[in-house]
User: What shape does this take?
Amino acid sequence: MNQSPAAAPARPVTRRWLDVARAFARLHPGAALASAYVLLIVLAGLLAPILPIPNPVAQDLVHRLAPPGSHGHLLGTDALGRDMLSRLIWGGRIALLVALLPTAIAAGISLVLGMAAGTYERWVGGVVMRMMDVLFAFPLVLLAIALGTVLGPGTNNLLVVIVVLLVPYMTRTVYVEVILAKESEYVAAARVAGSSEWRLLLDELLPNISGPLIVMATISAGAMIWVGAGLSFLGLGVQPPTAEWGRMTADGAPVLSTAPFVSTFPGVAILSVSFALNVIGDTLRDLLDPVLRRRSFVRQIEFVG
Assistant: This one.
Protein backbone atom coordinates (compact mmCIF):
# COMPACT_ATOMS: atom_id res chain seq x y z
CA MET A 1 0.00 0.00 0.00
CA ASN A 2 1.30 3.47 -0.85
CA GLN A 3 2.24 5.76 1.98
CA SER A 4 -0.22 8.57 2.63
CA PRO A 5 0.87 12.06 1.53
CA ALA A 6 0.49 13.48 5.04
CA ALA A 7 3.03 11.01 6.51
CA ALA A 8 5.60 11.36 3.73
CA PRO A 9 7.49 14.45 4.97
CA ALA A 10 8.26 12.91 8.39
CA ARG A 11 11.15 10.77 7.23
CA PRO A 12 12.93 13.43 5.14
CA VAL A 13 12.78 15.88 8.08
CA THR A 14 14.30 13.30 10.43
CA ARG A 15 16.97 12.39 7.91
CA ARG A 16 17.69 16.10 7.42
CA TRP A 17 18.53 16.60 11.08
CA LEU A 18 20.75 13.50 11.08
CA ASP A 19 22.59 14.98 8.12
CA VAL A 20 23.07 18.20 10.06
CA ALA A 21 24.60 16.31 13.01
CA ARG A 22 26.97 14.39 10.75
CA ALA A 23 27.96 17.57 8.93
CA PHE A 24 28.86 19.22 12.22
CA ALA A 25 31.21 16.38 13.09
CA ARG A 26 32.79 15.80 9.67
CA LEU A 27 32.71 18.98 7.60
CA HIS A 28 32.65 21.77 10.19
CA PRO A 29 35.35 21.19 12.83
CA GLY A 30 35.21 24.87 13.79
CA ALA A 31 31.52 24.60 14.66
CA ALA A 32 32.18 21.36 16.54
CA LEU A 33 34.95 23.09 18.51
CA ALA A 34 32.66 26.05 19.26
CA SER A 35 29.93 23.64 20.43
CA ALA A 36 32.40 21.86 22.70
CA TYR A 37 33.53 25.19 24.17
CA VAL A 38 29.97 26.31 24.92
CA LEU A 39 29.23 22.88 26.41
CA LEU A 40 32.33 23.22 28.61
CA ILE A 41 31.11 26.60 29.90
CA VAL A 42 27.67 25.12 30.56
CA LEU A 43 29.11 22.14 32.45
CA ALA A 44 31.45 24.36 34.47
CA GLY A 45 28.53 26.54 35.48
CA LEU A 46 26.32 23.58 36.40
CA LEU A 47 29.10 21.96 38.44
CA ALA A 48 30.22 25.21 40.09
CA PRO A 49 28.68 24.35 43.50
CA ILE A 50 30.76 21.17 43.78
CA LEU A 51 33.98 22.34 42.13
CA PRO A 52 36.99 22.92 44.45
CA ILE A 53 36.95 26.69 43.98
CA PRO A 54 36.61 29.52 46.52
CA ASN A 55 33.34 31.24 47.33
CA PRO A 56 32.83 33.79 44.52
CA VAL A 57 31.63 36.50 46.92
CA ALA A 58 34.14 35.87 49.74
CA GLN A 59 36.34 38.95 50.21
CA ASP A 60 40.01 38.92 51.19
CA LEU A 61 41.26 42.51 51.30
CA VAL A 62 44.73 41.41 52.35
CA HIS A 63 45.21 39.73 48.96
CA ARG A 64 43.28 42.22 46.83
CA LEU A 65 44.42 42.60 43.20
CA ALA A 66 46.69 39.59 43.45
CA PRO A 67 48.11 38.98 39.95
CA PRO A 68 47.31 35.84 37.94
CA GLY A 69 49.34 32.87 39.05
CA SER A 70 49.32 33.86 42.71
CA HIS A 71 49.20 31.08 45.27
CA GLY A 72 45.62 29.85 45.55
CA HIS A 73 44.39 32.25 42.87
CA LEU A 74 45.12 30.98 39.37
CA LEU A 75 43.62 34.06 37.67
CA GLY A 76 44.28 36.48 40.50
CA THR A 77 41.81 38.45 42.60
CA ASP A 78 39.72 41.56 42.08
CA ALA A 79 39.69 44.84 44.02
CA LEU A 80 37.90 43.18 46.94
CA GLY A 81 40.14 40.11 47.00
CA ARG A 82 37.56 37.81 45.43
CA ASP A 83 38.92 34.91 43.37
CA MET A 84 38.68 35.72 39.65
CA LEU A 85 38.48 32.11 38.43
CA SER A 86 35.63 31.34 40.79
CA ARG A 87 33.75 34.47 39.76
CA LEU A 88 34.27 33.69 36.07
CA ILE A 89 32.82 30.20 36.50
CA TRP A 90 29.86 31.39 38.56
CA GLY A 91 29.44 34.36 36.24
CA GLY A 92 29.13 31.95 33.33
CA ARG A 93 26.01 30.50 34.95
CA ILE A 94 24.36 33.91 34.94
CA ALA A 95 25.61 34.86 31.48
CA LEU A 96 24.25 31.70 29.87
CA LEU A 97 21.03 31.91 31.88
CA VAL A 98 20.50 35.47 30.66
CA ALA A 99 21.29 34.46 27.07
CA LEU A 100 19.64 31.06 26.70
CA LEU A 101 16.53 31.12 28.89
CA PRO A 102 14.93 34.32 27.52
CA THR A 103 15.94 33.29 24.00
CA ALA A 104 14.08 30.00 24.41
CA ILE A 105 11.05 31.79 25.90
CA ALA A 106 11.07 34.37 23.11
CA ALA A 107 11.32 31.59 20.51
CA GLY A 108 8.25 29.87 21.96
CA ILE A 109 6.23 33.09 22.06
CA SER A 110 7.35 34.04 18.56
CA LEU A 111 6.50 30.61 17.20
CA VAL A 112 2.90 30.96 18.36
CA LEU A 113 2.54 34.58 17.25
CA GLY A 114 4.31 34.08 13.91
CA MET A 115 2.39 30.94 12.95
CA ALA A 116 -0.92 32.52 13.92
CA ALA A 117 -0.09 35.70 12.00
CA GLY A 118 1.07 33.78 8.95
CA THR A 119 -1.84 31.36 8.93
CA TYR A 120 -4.55 33.97 9.48
CA GLU A 121 -2.74 36.69 7.62
CA ARG A 122 -5.60 39.10 7.06
CA TRP A 123 -6.75 39.73 10.63
CA VAL A 124 -4.37 38.20 13.17
CA GLY A 125 -1.37 38.91 10.97
CA GLY A 126 -2.25 42.57 10.62
CA VAL A 127 -2.61 43.10 14.37
CA VAL A 128 0.44 41.07 15.41
CA MET A 129 2.83 42.50 12.82
CA ARG A 130 1.75 46.10 13.53
CA MET A 131 2.56 45.49 17.19
CA MET A 132 5.96 44.18 16.17
CA ASP A 133 6.49 47.24 13.98
CA VAL A 134 6.03 49.46 17.03
CA LEU A 135 8.90 47.67 18.77
CA PHE A 136 10.99 47.77 15.59
CA ALA A 137 10.70 51.57 15.63
CA PHE A 138 13.10 51.72 18.59
CA PRO A 139 16.83 50.96 18.22
CA LEU A 140 17.57 47.74 20.08
CA VAL A 141 20.15 49.20 22.47
CA LEU A 142 18.02 52.22 23.36
CA LEU A 143 14.98 50.00 23.88
CA ALA A 144 17.02 47.74 26.17
CA ILE A 145 18.21 50.69 28.26
CA ALA A 146 14.72 52.20 28.41
CA LEU A 147 13.12 48.92 29.50
CA GLY A 148 15.90 48.30 32.01
CA THR A 149 15.39 51.75 33.48
CA VAL A 150 11.60 51.38 33.71
CA LEU A 151 11.63 47.86 35.16
CA GLY A 152 14.62 48.48 37.40
CA PRO A 153 17.77 46.42 37.98
CA GLY A 154 17.72 42.73 38.81
CA THR A 155 18.15 39.36 37.13
CA ASN A 156 14.43 38.70 36.64
CA ASN A 157 13.83 42.09 35.06
CA LEU A 158 16.84 41.55 32.79
CA LEU A 159 15.29 38.32 31.54
CA VAL A 160 12.04 40.15 30.76
CA VAL A 161 13.94 42.87 28.87
CA ILE A 162 15.70 40.34 26.66
CA VAL A 163 12.47 38.48 25.89
CA VAL A 164 10.84 41.74 24.79
CA LEU A 165 13.87 42.59 22.63
CA LEU A 166 13.87 39.24 20.82
CA VAL A 167 10.17 38.61 20.21
CA PRO A 168 9.77 41.09 17.31
CA TYR A 169 12.72 39.71 15.35
CA MET A 170 11.81 36.07 15.87
CA THR A 171 8.13 36.66 15.19
CA ARG A 172 8.91 38.30 11.87
CA THR A 173 11.17 35.39 10.95
CA VAL A 174 8.46 32.82 11.69
CA TYR A 175 5.83 34.94 9.94
CA VAL A 176 7.87 35.20 6.74
CA GLU A 177 8.68 31.48 6.76
CA VAL A 178 5.00 30.59 7.19
CA ILE A 179 3.98 32.89 4.31
CA LEU A 180 6.60 31.29 2.06
CA ALA A 181 5.71 27.77 3.15
CA LYS A 182 2.01 28.31 2.44
CA GLU A 183 2.88 28.78 -1.24
CA SER A 184 5.04 25.65 -1.45
CA GLU A 185 4.16 22.48 -3.30
CA TYR A 186 4.18 20.18 -0.28
CA VAL A 187 1.58 22.34 1.51
CA ALA A 188 -0.55 22.40 -1.62
CA ALA A 189 -0.30 18.61 -1.84
CA ALA A 190 -1.32 18.26 1.81
CA ARG A 191 -4.34 20.48 1.20
CA VAL A 192 -5.36 18.37 -1.78
CA ALA A 193 -5.02 15.29 0.43
CA GLY A 194 -7.58 16.82 2.81
CA SER A 195 -5.39 18.02 5.67
CA SER A 196 -7.02 20.50 8.02
CA GLU A 197 -5.41 23.83 8.97
CA TRP A 198 -4.20 22.38 12.27
CA ARG A 199 -2.71 19.35 10.54
CA LEU A 200 -0.95 21.66 8.11
CA LEU A 201 0.45 23.69 10.99
CA LEU A 202 1.71 20.72 12.99
CA ASP A 203 2.73 18.28 10.26
CA GLU A 204 3.89 20.52 7.42
CA LEU A 205 4.68 24.07 8.54
CA LEU A 206 6.15 23.50 12.01
CA PRO A 207 8.91 21.03 10.99
CA ASN A 208 9.95 23.20 8.06
CA ILE A 209 10.12 26.53 9.87
CA SER A 210 11.89 25.13 12.93
CA GLY A 211 15.27 25.26 11.17
CA PRO A 212 15.33 29.05 10.55
CA LEU A 213 14.00 29.70 14.04
CA ILE A 214 16.68 27.55 15.66
CA VAL A 215 19.37 29.32 13.64
CA MET A 216 18.09 32.74 14.65
CA ALA A 217 17.75 31.70 18.29
CA THR A 218 21.36 30.49 18.36
CA ILE A 219 22.72 33.69 16.82
CA SER A 220 20.45 35.81 19.03
CA ALA A 221 21.72 34.06 22.15
CA GLY A 222 25.23 35.16 21.22
CA ALA A 223 24.06 38.75 20.82
CA MET A 224 22.15 38.63 24.11
CA ILE A 225 25.39 37.77 25.91
CA TRP A 226 26.49 41.29 24.98
CA VAL A 227 23.16 42.90 25.82
CA GLY A 228 22.95 41.25 29.25
CA ALA A 229 26.56 42.11 30.04
CA GLY A 230 26.09 45.66 28.80
CA LEU A 231 23.03 46.29 30.97
CA SER A 232 24.82 44.81 33.99
CA PHE A 233 27.82 47.02 33.21
CA LEU A 234 25.50 50.05 33.33
CA GLY A 235 23.96 48.88 36.60
CA LEU A 236 20.63 47.92 35.02
CA GLY A 237 21.08 44.15 35.11
CA VAL A 238 22.50 41.69 37.62
CA GLN A 239 23.42 43.41 40.88
CA PRO A 240 26.44 42.87 43.13
CA PRO A 241 27.71 40.84 44.83
CA THR A 242 26.44 38.25 42.32
CA ALA A 243 29.20 37.26 39.91
CA GLU A 244 28.31 38.24 36.35
CA TRP A 245 30.70 38.98 33.49
CA GLY A 246 29.36 42.42 32.65
CA ARG A 247 29.31 43.45 36.30
CA MET A 248 32.86 42.09 36.73
CA THR A 249 34.03 44.19 33.78
CA ALA A 250 32.53 47.28 35.39
CA ASP A 251 34.13 46.44 38.74
CA GLY A 252 37.53 46.30 37.06
CA ALA A 253 37.21 49.72 35.39
CA PRO A 254 38.56 51.74 38.37
CA VAL A 255 41.73 49.59 38.51
CA LEU A 256 42.18 49.18 34.77
CA SER A 257 45.59 50.90 34.74
CA THR A 258 47.05 48.88 37.62
CA ALA A 259 45.25 45.52 37.26
CA PRO A 260 43.87 45.22 33.71
CA PHE A 261 43.23 41.49 34.11
CA VAL A 262 40.21 42.22 36.37
CA SER A 263 38.30 43.55 33.34
CA THR A 264 40.16 41.61 30.64
CA PHE A 265 39.23 38.10 31.78
CA PRO A 266 35.43 38.64 31.89
CA GLY A 267 35.67 40.68 28.67
CA VAL A 268 37.39 37.79 26.91
CA ALA A 269 34.77 35.40 28.30
CA ILE A 270 31.95 37.55 26.87
CA LEU A 271 33.67 37.81 23.50
CA SER A 272 34.58 34.13 23.20
CA VAL A 273 31.17 32.69 24.18
CA SER A 274 29.34 35.17 21.95
CA PHE A 275 31.66 34.32 19.06
CA ALA A 276 31.20 30.57 19.63
CA LEU A 277 27.41 30.89 19.57
CA ASN A 278 27.60 32.92 16.36
CA VAL A 279 29.83 30.29 14.73
CA ILE A 280 27.32 27.59 15.67
CA GLY A 281 24.44 29.69 14.34
CA ASP A 282 26.20 30.52 11.07
CA THR A 283 27.03 26.86 10.51
CA LEU A 284 23.46 25.79 11.23
CA ARG A 285 22.24 28.40 8.76
CA ASP A 286 24.53 27.06 6.05
CA LEU A 287 23.50 23.47 6.74
CA LEU A 288 19.77 24.09 6.97
CA ASP A 289 19.52 26.39 3.95
CA PRO A 290 19.25 24.14 0.88
CA VAL A 291 20.69 26.80 -1.45
CA LEU A 292 23.73 27.53 0.70
CA ARG A 293 24.25 23.83 1.37
CA ARG A 294 24.18 23.08 -2.35
CA ARG A 295 26.73 25.81 -3.03
CA SER A 296 28.97 24.46 -0.26
CA PHE A 297 28.73 20.95 -1.75
CA VAL A 298 29.66 22.29 -5.21
CA ARG A 299 32.66 24.12 -3.75
CA GLN A 300 33.82 20.91 -2.05
CA ILE A 301 33.59 19.00 -5.34
CA GLU A 302 35.50 21.73 -7.19
CA PHE A 303 38.19 21.72 -4.51
CA VAL A 304 38.60 17.94 -4.62
CA GLY A 305 38.58 17.98 -8.43
User: Anything to note?
Assistant: Residues 1-11, 291-305 have pLDDT under 50 and may be disordered. The CA atoms of residues 56 and 87 lie 5 Å apart.
